[in-house]
Amino acid sequence: MSSLDGKMVRVLDGVSLRAETGRVTALLGANGAGKTTTLECAQGLQKPSGGSVRLLGQDPWRAGAALRSRVGIMLQEGGLPPAVRPLALLQHVAGMYAAPRDVPGLADRLGLNSFARTPVRRLSGGQKQRLALACALVGNPEVLFLDEPSAGLDPQSRNIVFELINELRAEGLAIVLTTHLLDDAQKLADYVYIIDHGRLVRHGTVPDLTRHAADAVRELHFEAAEHLRLPSARLPHLTITEPTPGRYRVSGPLTPEDLAVLAAWWAEERILPASIALTSRSLEDVFLDISGRNIR
Amino acid sequence: MSAAALPVRVLQHGRYETLAMLRNGEQLVLAIVLPLLALSAIAFTPFFDAFGGPRLETGTPGVIALCVLSTAFTGQGIATGFDRRYGVLRFLSTTPLGRSGLILGKILAVGAVLSLQLAVIGTTAVLLGWQPPPGGILPALAMLIPGIAAFTALGLLIAGTLRPEATLAVTNLVWVLLAAVGGTIIPGDRLPEAIQPVVALLPSAALGDGLRAALASGTFDLSSFALLCGWAAVASVAAVRWFKWS
After folding, report:
1. B1 lies in a domain?
2. Nearest-Cα residue of chain A relative to residue B102
3. Which one, of B33, B58, B232, lies nearest residue B143 by Cα?
4. Total domain count, chain B
5. Which residues of chain B does A142 touch, with a Cβ-Cβ cutoff of 8 Å?
6. Which of B41, B155, B164, B207 is most deeply buried (CB count within 10 A of its CB)?
7. Which tens digits make up the pLDDT trace of B93-122?
8. Is A66's CB within 8 Å of B3's CB?
9. Where in the numbering of this chain does the ABC-2 type transporter transmembrane domain appear (chain B) (predicted)?
């Protein structure tokens, strides 16, 4: 099992986390939450001022070539030299490993051949991301760190990259990624750590986080005639409101029985709602509850 | 799953950095064109007669010292500064190459490009009639080693502490100053007396004087050698201490 535990002060405080093989572990947080710092401590790019970090059982800050060869890293800014052509760079990085992945195969898989002759500085954001991912993968790593892997990706690139990440997880890699996109975490991650202001605020599997007992709030929305007299007395444990005329929101710990009560009320009042929608909590709701609704 | 052997990694990175330097147009101007211009000016104009003895005999070793400044200090410093800005240093240091492999590769590239410069400058000078004493070759090579080390470390020190734009400005300005009044081409004792005591302590003067002693009279200039070794040691310690990778 590969693991990393970090407890960091100042920028990071009380952040303790762990990534396992065959799993995608996501660090989720707004910009500036401390995701990259956490990752850099785990990668050996920063020396934490306190706490401990273990990467495949070793101290990443003192990592030798043997440890580095087992870890693939995609940095947020890519770290790609601007004047070099993509395949030459990939070939160069491959040369650092005893048994690298097949370069043409990897280039083909990530669609690098379509811009093989273009220097890195003229690549689009998505093309750079795919090249950086190829560079991180070319050494056949056991642990893969991806800092904001979907930044700048167009929908097609995103599909290619997500498919590949799922495949690598199935191959048994420990994958750690950061993202500020909830959709990414929900789609990719087995386990999510939510970081805010350098603190670990919540963690769990995506179902755990969205199904958390205290958070088991569902909402029902329906559209009908304006200014109905609401059956609040019949459903005292729920909140029924009309935020905009004709649109109603029922929120709280909804049960099947509550739906029967609502339906009975509609029948009594001869109401046929124009639409009815039941929503469950998404990771986004959890995240926004924690980080606040303010845009940072 | 496992890393390539250390010499393989370093050699490969050396080759990569060499090609990067040779593909860079500005770098080539600095490494080849400007030293060739300096050599031509010395050989074909009376400009140098006021400062040195026979034009090629005193002038060529200075141009060789200038090549070291161009490649080890200015060229390498600028390239490293921008690599640092773009995160290339960080990325490569996470591969099996590592931080030390990265630096060793850069030193190798400096050596390779400098060999090419020496071949071009040396051949041109010989074609123009330069006849260095055969006994001077070994002392000259001995002088080049601490010279390259000192200027590479100084270049890395600047590249690793300043912004790349500042590195660009500083290393170019220092190149011009050292080339003109740093004892590189014009021997220190021919410069205005007021600046002589300072110039005598510069690594550029030590390299210029050492190479002139070797290639003009075939002797080994121990004090210049010692001064260069001192600069190399101090600059290396400072670079290791203050170099920032990101």
Report:
1. no
2. A96
3. B232
4. 1
5. 1
6. B207
7. 999 999 889 999 999 999 999 999 999 999
8. yes
9. 16-214
